[in-house]
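Customer ticket, subject: "Can you confirm the structure for mannose-1-phosphate guanylyltransferase?"

Message body: Hello, I'm evaluating your service for our small team and ran a test protein. I'd like someone to confirm that this is what the system normally returns, since I don't have a reference to compare against.
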Amino acid sequence: MKALILVGGYGTRLRPLTLSVPKPLVEFANKPILLHQVEALVKAGVDHVILAVSYMSDLLEREMRVQEERLGIKISLSHEKEPLGTAGPLALARELLTDNDEPFFVLNSDVICDFPFEDMLKFHKHHGREGTIVDPTAVIGQNCTIGPNVTIGAGVVLEDGVRIKRCTVLKGSRVRSHSWLESCIVGWSSSVGQWVRMENVTVLGEDVIVNDELYLNGANVLPHKSITDSVPEPRIIM
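Agent reply: Thanks for trying us out. I re-ran your input and got the following:
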């Protein structure tokens, strides 16, 4: 399995340190930032890391050749001759990434966290869509179906069997088991009960509670409300 890490930036916010080394090689907890990522990827089964390089690429290559041998993986460099943003390096490295049908990881090089790569890979393979964007603090239950066009915010909990498409679930919300949401926005810190169906641009404000087994069709619910009855026709709940 492969991973592409975007390491071409100038690291201006870490100057003057990055006048000597590129930002991915600046040490964090006595280890280069980039190495935290590479080691976590290897643990998740990645055996080919592609670095999209530009600034100080010679220093990056020198260090990564040492790590390539130590970790027993392949490390390739894809050189940007000019800044290509975020999507550009993907296009530039397409031949390295698409020589088989396996999924691959894409990372920015300056992120350090408890990388949930194994969970992300399992989730991605389960829902079968083209791509997955998951906040690392979100919790996804078993047998969920997510997508297309879904955004899941920080601290969100989706319990078992939830089905969501064309929705945004904002920070701190919970969707309980076996609920079905399409074309909805779930506001911050809201709770959707079990076996709920919401559709047709239903929008929940902040801290809304939707009880179990209800149907919401185009409802617009103001903040801090508790919904105890179905809303079969579009209306505003004040």
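A couple of notes from the result: The longest helix spans residues 57-71. Residues 133 and 178 are 21 Å apart (CA to CA). Feel free to reply with more questions.
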